[in-house]
Structures are given as structure tokens and as C-alpha cells.
Structure prediction request, 1064 residues.
Amino acid sequence: MRVRPGQNVLVANVPVMNGAESLVRTLIASGVTVCFANPGTSEMHFVAALDSVPGMRPILGLFEGVVTGAADGYGRMAERPACTLLHLGPGLANGTANLHNARRAATPLVNIVGDHATYHAQFDAPLASNIELLARYASGWVHAATSARTVGADAARAVRAALEPPGQIATLVLPADAAWLEAEGEASPLPRPEPALPSGAEVTRVAAALRARKPSAILIRGAALKERGLRAAGRIAAHTGTRLMCDTFAPRLQQGAGRVVVERIPYFAEAIVAHLAGLEELVLVGAKPPVAFFAYPDKPSWPVPDACTIRILAHAHEDGTAALEALADELGAGPHPALVAERQLPDLPAAGKLDAIAAGRIITRLLPENAIVSDEAATSRGGLVSLPFAAPHDHLALTGGSIGSMIPVATGAAVACPDRKVVSVQGDGGAMYTLQALWTQAREKLDVTTVIFANRSYAILAGELARVGASGGGAKARSTLDLHDPTLDWVKLAEGLGVEATRAETTERFADLFANAMLGRGPRLIEAVIDG
Amino acid sequence: MRVRPGQNVLVANVPVMNGAESLVRTLIASGVTVCFANPGTSEMHFVAALDSVPGMRPILGLFEGVVTGAADGYGRMAERPACTLLHLGPGLANGTANLHNARRAATPLVNIVGDHATYHAQFDAPLASNIELLARYASGWVHAATSARTVGADAARAVRAALEPPGQIATLVLPADAAWLEAEGEASPLPRPEPALPSGAEVTRVAAALRARKPSAILIRGAALKERGLRAAGRIAAHTGTRLMCDTFAPRLQQGAGRVVVERIPYFAEAIVAHLAGLEELVLVGAKPPVAFFAYPDKPSWPVPDACTIRILAHAHEDGTAALEALADELGAGPHPALVAERQLPDLPAAGKLDAIAAGRIITRLLPENAIVSDEAATSRGGLVSLPFAAPHDHLALTGGSIGSMIPVATGAAVACPDRKVVSVQGDGGAMYTLQALWTQAREKLDVTTVIFANRSYAILAGELARVGASGGGAKARSTLDLHDPTLDWVKLAEGLGVEATRAETTERFADLFANAMLGRGPRLIEAVIDG
Prediction:
């Protein structure tokens, strides 16, 4: 039933193109060329169209959280959407936690969610559910296709919606008959929406505020955290002495030697208060004011000093890079940025039992140029604090707090950037949520080195139990935070998923293994035992 | 801050009880004594209350799909709800696919979903999301607690809602301050709602229809598929010659030697049409009319013959068992049921390369008395067809079509029934979705034997690709259905999760391993290689 090159398309009863082909062709014409997929029966025509239409790369995930998390990582690095292919409501549900993270990252992403044929919905078959309601949870744009003849146009709109600055999730529900019935052709791609330029009046006002040289900071998020925006921010800092900051969980930050350093806002509420103490001007570029990640009894949720004026130089949908450049020019800042990082690598730690600090220092020291760091190290982050002074790299953070995202994000980043080394640093608790992503790394031979920090607990919760004042901490409470009994064996888990894996319990062994991984190519995993 | 036995509770500033303790006490008083949990910071007071309040058993899952799937299995077997403990919207999202299955199973289940403190919501912190919207997707009852003083009463209502016949999901959102602030005490449990008795007039009408002795069938779902309801159905069959049926994916069916056999409706649309051909009367007991699982071009969605009259003897919320007994009495049926299964075990297959049929026959033959079979064997089910003539057991099916549910369901069933052997039969594709459940089986030392049918493909989809008329099936399409490259190693995966595991590639080896597993206790996994 598919038309192939050279085949006569005028065969009786054979449509030139079905809805699925119209959809896939339109996606490709719109610049969407990677499909992270976990399909089922209702998506079989889309799957078939992957062969009949050239230009789309399908990548299978064995769980939908892999699919959506990988699409997040791809979108962050490629700056254009991948599409997902998900199987009805439950397939979307399994991908939804990582979509929450992608929403917080403002990643452009197009979900294609298969559904029952339109006429089948009335029968409330076992897999039927309210897909649109579920899609609204994390998507900025939701549409259910009604016909094969219009699904191409729907796809073009979905891609455009995903690219609306700063980027969002667009979900297109695809009933099976909208995929299998006849379509006229593909739809034309829509122009990519450009971010708005910030107001000149606001630039002037912020410039005046910074000229006053009160204690100030510029908090940056989004594309302005890449080299060009950071350079403009560094010029402003050189001219005004302002501090430069980014969120604790910035979606993507270009950092490392030779780049302008921004202060990463700390995680805990009281630490944020201390970090912002004395600020009188806070200028936002694509960011919102910092808030506490969680509420705690007797701890502040709002850490910005009362006396601090908050100014918005650029909203998230505006061009933060252009705004910073306009501000630097308005200020008459010179061409040389301040706060440029000098390369400063930590020493290799002494031989002996491995701990998180030592492992982090080794990673920092040995990180290759132009790597991508997918960071869900959580409580094991301590040794990574000098990453801003290591080789230049892109740093990707867990944006929405839903742990388990960053092995999939690393996977998608590696698909987007096949020539760059991806280093994926993961706490063992979080890594368990979507470990299936390792299989996709193996199948696609992606150049990802995963380091599992195996502390064998939900370490952060042990601390949080006390911090929230719930100081009970008896045997039952501890049992919900402890991952011993049985101990997870990450070497076996990775090998079971087809990824070469090794374990390090000493500093020297970890340094050897990690150095080796940096020299080689392809997926591998190192279990860094930092337990007790 | 917690009050312990013997401690003077009149300490200044120490509340006698906080909201979390009020909640946990009320749950226990309402009969909810097992909590499947994957908590985070916002749930720490609930976690602490597990120690300060005696009577609740916490069971940790390393992914929320484990938690909700286990609560489904527990609820199906215990006939009262377990509660879950989930971490904000993303935690609920990760558990939602298995909640979809639980919804289709009409399982009583109470979700406790932690949220930010009420006053923290305004700050839209990274983990904030629209939890109530998400909860509505699968829950019949949703409420967000507003205060520690009323959260106990909320919990009592949630349990009652979960038990509303035939059973549903009740989701209580628990803001952190509703857990940590002071409460007056626990709330009184509410009376368990009883199923309505079906109308006598309808019983009379159905009796008249069956007396006409046209070709008829009774389609049963829910609690009437246990021994007592089946016995009444068998009496009716003996008196009228009617056929007895259950859905393809009945949530729970008591079957095996000595029990009344019901015909399981086949999966594929055209097979259902053939199965129901000629029926003139279809009587529903807690069931809806059968429909095709998926739509296919040129295949029917509605398989019931046009000439067939559909009668509703009992709705799902009514007492189907009482309805069947009333019908049997109204008909004047004798005490002896027809269709009682005689034990008829398949022969042990000949030695040689293992296949799905041989593995299924061995399982059927060696199944111990009173086992629980958690069945997601999918395309590998063929060898299990004579289970209705094996030792009596409870059979649990994947009710909502969201694959990956049944390892968690087996886990929860084993918690509910610690003295019964649980046999969990799983296709390898589906098993990958929520494999983390094996770790919970290991930690809790549950008596579950998992058999992975390793055909190393999404086998059903290879067939479906052709069935839907999407006959392309080129290299890309096949790549999304094939689980080779790399091959999953289930022995390593299970061992990595702390479960003893072995692999069988021959019939005789599988028979040995399975026989051994049936003699022993505790979790183990057998990878039954049935590839190629």
C-alpha cells in the first residue's frame, strides 16, 4: 500500500499518500528529522511511513520516559524539536514526568500521540482515555487531528508552536484513521517564530539602574547562557561591577575555560538568602526571580531581599542575548568581558577509597574539550564545583526536579551532537527511574559515558527528613530512603541493557576507568561506589 | 517533634499530632495498612508518621509505576485499598499508566500525592504543576487537602470513595503544610459502601429470556468471577444451556479444577465476531458489551451480532454475585453447576529447544494449588490456554492495555497474600517498562516467580503492522519493533535488582527451573528464551 520511488502511483485504489505519510513529510519539511519512538498498534501507519518517506530517523526507547527525556536533550542541544511517537494516553502518561522537566527547560518538542480511530472512541475500549486532558498537563499546545486530509497542516502548526520562544511542548493527538486514510499531500512548513526584541526603553532604564552601582546582579536563563550572551553579560560586569547569576537548574549553560563565569544560585532556601543578601538591583534576562525549591517550616520561600528592586530586561519569550548586547552598548561597555574563567583543573586526588568529591574532581580534570555534561549528580555534585574552570563544555541540568531525566537527556544530546563526548553524571536513586535509556545508547552506539554515584540511598531525603522538622527518622522512615537490601548492581544492570560497564571503589581505579572512557568512543557506564 | 509512647505530650509547643499523623491514623482506622511509597521532600512528615503511628507497612518502590501497579495488585486480591505515597505531579505522572490499568480493573486504591505547602504554590517552583488536572485522568475521586485539621476527614472520605462499588481510584493531594501543621486528632472511618442489589424485575425479565432457550451467553466481570458467583452462573448454565463468558482481560478470575469454567473472549476483533456469532441473548453481569481492542481498516469495532439482544442483569456497581444467585433461584435451577472444570494437565513437552507453547504447558502443569497468576504473557500466552483445567488459582490480567503493569501487580498481590505462590508471566517487551518492581520483590522477600518470555521483539506489533494494512515493514519500521541489538540479558537485569535469576533455552532446563521455583520460596526470575 506504500508508494516507493519509481513505482507507478496511479494504481487503482492505492492512494498517493496517507495521513501518516503526509504527517511525516510535513515534519521533515519543517525540520523535524528525529523521532524518539515507543509505538503500539495505533501508530503502525506512522511506523510504516518511516520507511516509505525518506529523511526521518526513528530511535526506539523501551519506555516512554526514555523517549520524552531524549527528545528534551535533543531539543536543548539542537535548538529544534525532535518528535516523539507515543502509544495513546498511557504511553503519554509514562512520558509525562520527563515532559514536566522539558516544560521547565522550555525545550521545543513535538509529541505525536496515537489514538484510537475517531469512530472507535465511542466504544471506550480498554486503552481509551482522555488524552487531551493528560496532554495539557505539560504541553503549551494541544490539538487532536480530525482527518488525514488536515493532519499535515496540524503537524506544521505543531512544529511552529514548539518553536515559539522560548520553546514549548506541542502535542498532536493522531487518531489511527487520520493516519491511514487518504491525504492530498504534505503541508508547507510555517516560518520559524523569532524571539521578540526587548524594549529599548527598558534597556535604558536598566542601564540607568546599573550605572548607580548599587549591589546588583543579572540573573540569566535560556539561550543567553550560551557564549554570545555570556560575553555581553561579561562586558556589562566589567563596566558596572554587577554580578552574573544563573538558576540552580539552568537548562543549558556554556561554561569552562575562556567563557564568562556566572554564579549558580544554590539549592537550599537559606543558602539562596545568603547568596542574595545585600542585593539592591536584580535584573532578569529570560529568568524568573529565584524561589526556594521546597517550602520548609520556618524557612523562607522567597529569598530575594525586601529592599531589592527586580527589573525585567528580557522576558523568556524575548531575545535575551540581544538584550544583553543592547545593554552593554547602552552602557558604553568596552569589548572585553570580565569574569572570564581561567583554566584551573583540580589535582588528581590521592589514591584510596573513592568518595563523591574525588570522583567529581577526576571528572572535572579529565573532561574533554567541547563535551556535554548531563548532570543529575544531586547530593554527589560536590566534586563538580570547579567545572566552570575545566575544559569548555555545555552543562545540562535537571530542570523540573523530576529525577530520572538525565540519562535520557544525555541520550538525546548525543543524538543531536554525534561528534561530542557526553558525560552523564547520575545519582543511583535517580538513575533507577529511567535506566532503560542505557539500552537506547547501546543500540544507537552513542558516545555517552555514564557515571553512577552509588551512595545507595535517597541521600537528599535523609537530610530533608531533618530539615523539614520531621525528625522521627525511625526504622520505617529510614527504610523508605535507603537503597541497600538489596544493593543495586549497576554493572549488571548496564550489561543487561547492552552497555559495557565497570565498577570503581578506589580513586585510582575510577581515574583509570574514566580516563579510558574519555579516550574511547561509544556507551559505557562506571559505577562509582561512594557508599559509607 | 514526634510524640512517642511514654512521652509526656504536654510539652510546650509540641502538638499532640500533626496532619500527617492524623492522616496515617485515619487511614489505618479505615483499614488501609499498606503504603506503597516513593516519597520526596514534600512527603517527609508522612514518612516520619510511619514510625510515630503504629500499624502502617511502608513498601518502597524505586519508580512510581511500581508503586501504583503494586497497589493495583494488592487491591485486587485484598479487596480493600492500599495507599500510595507519591511525590508531587511528576511522581503521580510516573504512576499514571498503571493507574489507568487499575481504573480499568476497578481496583480500590487511595493515592496520597504530596504537594508544596499551600503558601508555596504561588511561587511556581520547579516541581510545581497542576496535580489535580493530572489526577483526574485516572481517578474517580480527587481532592486537595486544605488544612492539617481536616486532612483526617479527607482521608476517611478518600477510602470510602475508593471502596465505592465496583472500586475506583481516589486521589488525595497533600500539601506539605497540611502534613506538618497541628491537627486535633484522627477522623472516624466511614462505613464501607455496599454494592446495590440488582432489581428483581430485571432478574425476572432475564429469566424469561433465558427460558426461551435461544442461543445465549452471560458475560461476567468483577467479584462475580470468584467461586461463589461462578457457581451460581454454572447452575444457570446447567438449567438453561447458556454459555458463560468473561472479558479477554478480566481483572481477576478464579479458575482451575473444580471451578466453573467461563469462556474468555478472544483478543482480535474478527475472532470475537466468530466467538459471538449466532448469539441472540447477551446478559451482562458487571460487564460492558465486548468491543474490539483496536480499530482496524475494514474490520468491525462492534462484534456483537446485530440480532442479539443485550440485557443488563447487574451493572458494575451492583452485586453481580447476588444477581446470579437470584437468577439461578428464579429459574429454579438445581444446586449442581454445569461446566465444572476437571483437572486435565498438559503433558510435559519433549526435550529440546524451548518455545512459548512448551514453557506455558510446563507452567500450567506445575502450577501449585491456590497460586496467583499475574499474566502479561501477551503473544506468548499460547501454552497457558489450559490453565482453567490446572490447579485452582486466581488469574490477574492486564486490564487497561498499558503494558508493564503485571510485575508490579504480582508484587502487590504477593504482599496481599503472603501465603500464596505468585507466578508472574511476562513478555520481555512489556517487562522492560517497570522492571524496577523486581527490586521491591527482593527487598520484601516476596514469594514471586517471574517468567520472562524472551522473544526479543514487540511481537504483537510485527503482526499488527500487517493487520492494520500498513504493510511497508521496511528496515526502519522493523527497527522500532525489534528488541535485538543489543539483546536484553534478563538474568543480569534481575541480579542487578537483587533477584536470583536463571536462563532456560531448552524445555528440560525450563521444567527443572520452574519446578524448583515452585518448591522454594522467595523471589526468583527465569528467562525463558523463545527467540527464533
Summary: Chain B touches chain A through 105 residues (CB under 8 Å). The CA atoms of residues 84 and 183 of chain B lie 22 Å apart. Residues 1-13 of chain B have pLDDT under 50 and may be disordered.
